[in-house]
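User: Structure please.
Assistant: Input sequence and predicted structure:
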Amino acid sequence: MLLLQQVMALIGRNLSPVPVLREMLHLLSELLGLNRGRVVLRDEGAQSACIRHAYGLTAQEVERGRYDEGEGITGQVLRDGHLIIVQDIDAEPGFLARAVERSKLPPGPVSFIALPIMRGQTTVGVLACHRIRTRSRALADDVTLLRILATLVGQLLQLEANLEEKTRALEQRNAVLAQALASSSARYGIIGTSPRLLRAISELERVSDSSASVLLLGESGTGKELFARALHLASPRRDKAFIKINCAAIPETLFESELFGYERGAFTGAATARAGWFEQADAGTIFLDEIGEMPLTLQTKLLRTLQEGTLTRLGGKREIRVDVRLVAATHRDLLSGVASGTFRQDLYYRLNVIPISLPSLAERHEDIRELALHFISHVNQVNQRNVNLTAAALVRLQDYSWPGNIRELANLIERIVLLAEQPLLDAADIDRFLPLESGVVEKTVKVAPTLASHQLSLRPYGSVNSHSVDTLLHALQQCGGNKSRAAQMLGMTARQFDYRWKKLGQGAL
């Protein structure tokens, strides 16, 4: 009974057969004197078997323990599926003494007990051991115990087979997913299979072979740069340059020289001539992100370059021919900019040849799980961490609205991985971080009525000279000091906000 208790405790701690069977055979020898125990298992897809687990046998003895069906006592049990007890191995001609030579055993009478190991209705192996006949304990008691152990071994092997089958099924499923990820979306590095996303990718692929301008429309954080790069990779220009410019990040005074280049002596400090981004992108693709932030004076020169395929460097007179595919992106309503006079109508129509709308993350609800797993794998690899999410945590991520879209999700995943206190995070752990995200949204939502009470315009584009210092300060306070968000609430660009702030005699922000 003690042996059974210990074996069951072993199985409870470890479902792997190897350590359990080894210790079980050890206990048979130490507690009951059933020595040289071995578990013989069938070879995969063969009519033979060999010793897979043993206690008290040398490596050479284990190596010799191979049997065909019907060969010797072990082979007969393997073939017929019935218990065989040899009372005296010296009196049994069918006993081969193949694994353990007779000279290695005690000189007196030695018994041999072999029991079938069943998995369902199939004999998959044999549990066998030697027994000294002079033992005071009844043979029937030992056989009863061995029957129980053989049944446990069969169940353990069945469990292992089930786990292996599930593992194979998961591997096959992963292979299918890997194949799917090699499809149109994944080969561009775009994660997801939602209908809205696949529709955008389909539009992208249909226009990839042309040189027509493409305007990517969508909220901030929806992956416009990734789509622009995907369009480049899908086009015949894939082996040429891909130049990305964020129009909102370039000071107005540097915009022309950066975009179109300059000649030597064009301005103080221009010791040598320099090619601009359009020249660097010749035969390739140029991506103008946040095109709505481009100064009005530069829009005219950009339009001319797009129409004529030529440019003139700052301080130069020579026309330089360029062949560039333009991809522009914005989260703004450019038609409102046209109406307010801050965006050229002819440039708008030149850019809007192929408009592609990118869905927000809220419109790609079914992609959140896959994106989260992708980001957590990436952050784990980069930071040498091993943090994972439970199913409940993934559901919690899917339930959130994600106003900041994919960028917000990526940032959240990085934060929770780096600050995780345990390797497996549940929904409650996610909730510790989500309020940080939700707080921004709530604050933004509450700004509108406050600003309305100060009679502020919510137009996408507004008059730069229509706001007082108090209005600018109030917007900054409401937006927690975030200049870009304050400008957005006032219907201004960040550059316009800076301009108005300085014009009112205020210092640098």
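The chain has four domains: 1-164, 188-357, 361-433, 469-505.
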